[in-house]
Amino acid sequence: MLLFVGLGNPTPDSENNRHNVGFKIIDKINKEFSLTKQKPKFKGLLTTGNIGKNKVYAIKPLTFMNNSGICIRELIEYFKIDAEDVIVFHDDLDVEFGKVKAKFGGSSAGHNGISSIDKFIGKDYSRVRIGIGKPKGNIDVADYVLQNFDEDETLGIEKISKNITESISILVEKKLDLFSSTVNNKQ
After folding, report:
1. What three-state secondary structure class fits 7?
2. φ/ψ of residue 167, rounded to 5
3. What is the set of active-site residues?
4. pTM to 2 decimals?
5. Do the Cβ atoms of 85 and 31 come closer than 8 Å?
6. How far is the CA of 91 from the CAs of 1, 10, 42, in angstroms?
7. CA 100 – CA 90 distance, rounded (Å)
8. What pLDDT, in 10s, does the model give residues 153-177?
9. Helix H segments across the chain?
């Protein structure tokens, strides 16, 4: 069993924020792999299905970014999923826009959603960091991540989402470096 987690904020005005790229990836996975209709469970929107031979759960926490770990802990305890079988999709300022870096464990690098998950389940899970780039000019980081993607960025995120789903079989096998290079080579 695997758990895919997409980080974001659940308000309608947050839908196209940079911080909500994790939600967009889960939506694309749900569509591409015909996972079940989203149901409110475990303080999130949960879907289930199969990718290849793997049973997959996918969730978008409704606890807001800074409390994402609450939702994840409830779900993994209920379904008895090991933290090592959790894969979190989230935005990352330190990754160039349009690039993807997958890794296992590590620090939160100041990402509050990751910090919350670390607090509730530890650090032994995989992360797919989707680059949103750094703010230009005098804009505060918190304001930047809560801004909507512009038109070009929206198209870029749609392409990244497509490339991620096309390479998902590599991610399911937890070949993180190969997954990252495969996705990035398609850009």
Report:
1. coil
2. -110, 10
3. 19
4. 0.97
5. no
6. 24, 15, 22
7. 10
8. 999 999 999 999 999 999 999 999 9
9. 21-32, 68-79, 112-121, 141-145, 151-166, 168-172, 176-185
96-110 in b/e form (b: 16+ CB < 10 A) is: ebbbbbbeeeeebee
CB-based burial label for 31 (10 Å; 0-12, 13-18, 19+): exposed
Query: How far apart are alpha carbons 125 and 73 in whole angstroms?
Result: 12
pLDDT at 39: 96
Domains of the chain and CATH, by start: 2-185 (3.40.50.1470)
Instruction: Point out which residues pair with 92 in neighbouring strands.
Output: 131
Residue 44 to residue 51: CA distance in whole angstroms? 21
Residue 100 DSSP symbol? E
The order of strands in the sheet holding 44-51 is 39-41, 44-51, 54-61, 2-6, 86-92, 126-131, 100-104
- H or E element at residue 103: strand 100-104
CA distance 142 to 161: 24
Which residue is associated with the tokens 């409704």? 62
> Looking at the predicted structure, is the pLDDT value of residue 187 above 80?
no
| Burial class of residue 42 (count of CB atoms within 10 Å of its CB; 0-12, 13-18, 19+) | buried
Tell me what the mean pLDDT of segment 44-63 comes to: 96
Q: And the tokens for 58? A: 């996918």
Looking from the CA of 6 toward its CB, the CA atoms found within 13 Å total 26
